[in-house]
Design a protein that fits this description.
188 residues, mainly beta, 14-stranded parallel sheet, seven-stranded parallel sheet, globular
Length: 188
């Protein structure tokens, strides 16, 4: 809990093994990443868990950056990033929350799983991207629910881009762009 304001020349909040936030109000303005976890030697570490709180993040790199896992269970998250809004090398799971992102890419991980939440993305490259950044996870985007709005810039842009498979089982998705879906494997 509490009110935390961070202005820094590099990363805002950084934990090697993990960062877990249960609540509070965060304003983060940095030249690096907003919230970061860096342990890439242990699959159970290098994680970020958000269980609540209000976040206003304005950064020169990624809003959230994890070498392994990011889990968002709830909270209000507003990110303006000059790179990715939320980036996990391994696994990114969103279970709920109100997430607004402006960045080069909105959500990026090897495996992106969205179960619920309200997500609004404005991006200049990919809105949601699954790329092969970790051998511990399948390259996959899985959407099971939620309300997702993606608005992309002009040019060679993709709303939802999987370098593997793409599975949409539920939810409401509204995409404005040149190429709404791009996938290298199968799509269902």
């Amino acid at each position: 809990g509490g009110t935390i304001n961070v202005t820094s020349a590099d990363d805002g909040i950084k934990g090697k093994d993990s960062v877990t936030i249960e609540g509070g109000k965060f304003t983060i303005n940095t030249k690096g990443d907003g919230i970061k976890s860096t342990n890439d030697e242990d699959i159970k570490k290098g994680k970020i868990v958000i269980n609540g709180g209000e976040f206003n993040i304005n950064v020169s790199k990624d809003g959230f950056d994890s070498s392994n896992i990011i889990t968002i269970n709830k909270g209000t998250i507003n990110i303006k990033a000059e790179d990715d809004g939320i980036h996990a090398d391994g696994y990114l799971e969103i279970n709920n929350g109100n997430i607004n992102i402006e960045g080069v890419e909105g959500l990026e991980a090897t495996y992106v799983k969205i179960n619920d939440g309200t997500i609004t993305i404005s991006a200049s490259d990919d809105g949601i991207n699954a790329g092969n950044k970790s051998s511990n996870y399948e390259v996959l985007i899985e959407i099971n629910g939620g309300n997702i709005t993606i608005k992309m810039g002009q040019g060679d842009t993709d709303g939802i881009d999987s370098n593997g498979n793409l599975y949409i089982n539920g939810g409401t998705i509204d995409i404005t762009c040149n190429s709404p879906f791009d996938y290298d494997g199968e799509a269902k």
